[in-house]
Amino acid sequence: MKRAVVIAFTFLVTATSAAAAKAGQPVAEAGRETEYVVLYKEGVNAADARGAVQAAGGRILKENGTVGLATVSTTDPGFTSLLRGSALIEGVARNRSVGSVPDNAPMSDGAVRKALGAEAFEEPGRGERGAPSAARRRKPAPQAEPLSELQWDMKQIGATVDGSYKYEQGDPEVLVAILDTGVDGSHPDIAPNFNRELSRNFTVDIPVDADGEEVDGPCEEEPDRSCDDPADVDEDGHGTHVASALAAPINGLGIAGVAPKVSIVNLRVGSDVGYFFLQPSVDALTYAADIGVDVANMSFYTDPWLSNCTGNPSDSPEERLEQTTIRRAMQRALDYAHARGVTLITAIGNQAVDLTKDYVDRSSPNFVRVPGEKPHSRTITPDCDIMPVEGNHVIRVSATGVSERKSFGSNYGDGSTDLAAPGGDTYDTPDNTRDTTRATLAAYPKALAVARGELNPDGTPNVARVVRDCDGAVCAYYQYDQGTSMASPRAAGVAALIVSEHGHQDRKHGGKTLNPDVVEAMLKTTATRKDCPTPAAYTYTRHLPNGTTVTDTHLCEGNRFRNGFYGYGIVNALRAVR
Length: 578
Known about the structure:
The chain is α/β, with parallel strands linked by helices. Helices cover 20% and strands 18% of the residues.
């Protein structure tokens, strides 16, 4: 899961400006344009709800009629008060203040243009799957990719030339959506499987936060310095890594993904540095359902709250209502996608905590939406939910290291973990010291490597985490990364293989489809069972580069059939298609 992935909303449903000020909550300034996200009550007439918003002084900028979610702009600090108690409105969310960006604002690490050009951005809309491909024929297993020996992760799950590739490499008509920071669609080891026609960008970059601190940096998309990037760009690298791990083709270059012939659909919902807003996330999920996406990978969580609680005593009444609304809005989108055939797979998270037990969160809210806003410490109880991770119909994936032990940073919990997959752990070594190659290797945008100073003048990498492979004049770059964000797409790749092998004709969209509940059952029944360690209270030891030794103990509860570290087991590509 992305380390700094957040959603920038404050939900203020019942609090008046005066009450909020009395409670110490930040309020909108009179005359300052502020964006909100408004959740309509289910079943109400959308026109009536829009009327209520407009009567309260709001101007609707964007609306998702499927879920009943609208982005609204207003200069009235009493906007939430006017909507309070409306029979048409379920929640109101502060998005962010709207302001200008100084021309001399420094360029962020993520504000890097691609070295190669990109097609003009197309507005989101209903797409078509495209012409059916020729009938597939089983072929002899291909030769291993040049960097396959570095892919310990694929060996762990049987996604190799002697394993699943021999029987099923995926169907191009199976669509896998990457809900992330974007996908570098021109990367040589992604481009063959990249569906540019259906890919969309649902978000905009955030130049600065409410305190004026740089977030993504100035908007630079020419010709008018737009904050809307094209739908084949990734200025963070996270989404490109995820897409490549799932579906890098077998083409004699670099690596291969779990399902090297399925189609990648980039549904960008995260900003350059990884802030995920509610409206883009909801819009992407409903769009995925409407175009016939088969599998959606979601290696993120929506914030500003790491976990959303309804009655946490450390939160104000307004904050509790905010978190309740986050859960309801995201769940509506998850329900919609699941009901229309989308298998939903997500990273379980990287806080190294048991989600079935109490733990402390000191990071929330972690985006400055109004001046001076700060996170506060609070105890998270099991009735709180990370979204979309702990939503209904979502398959949660923990991470394993090269030895198959649960990765240190991976969240866990008996009843919370559904499956495990390779995500990497650089301290999973015999002497518990750091080894970069114990992370996972996948595609990396060259533009980022250049901008971050990771390449020599001749194009060779100058840092251990970046690897280059060339096929003649064509060179591609890859990076080592670790986390449950890396585990999730490897499980999603196996899900895509299951749809490819066992799916039936999708009469509505073309291609193949398979009930998500069937896909989930097959993922679990074909996974490699993995018991808890002995003793079940496993102590991680890490000898850090600065000479410090750190230990931490995680308790694995459950049995071989299902437990808190591995769920129903480590996904297995070979068993899923045999």
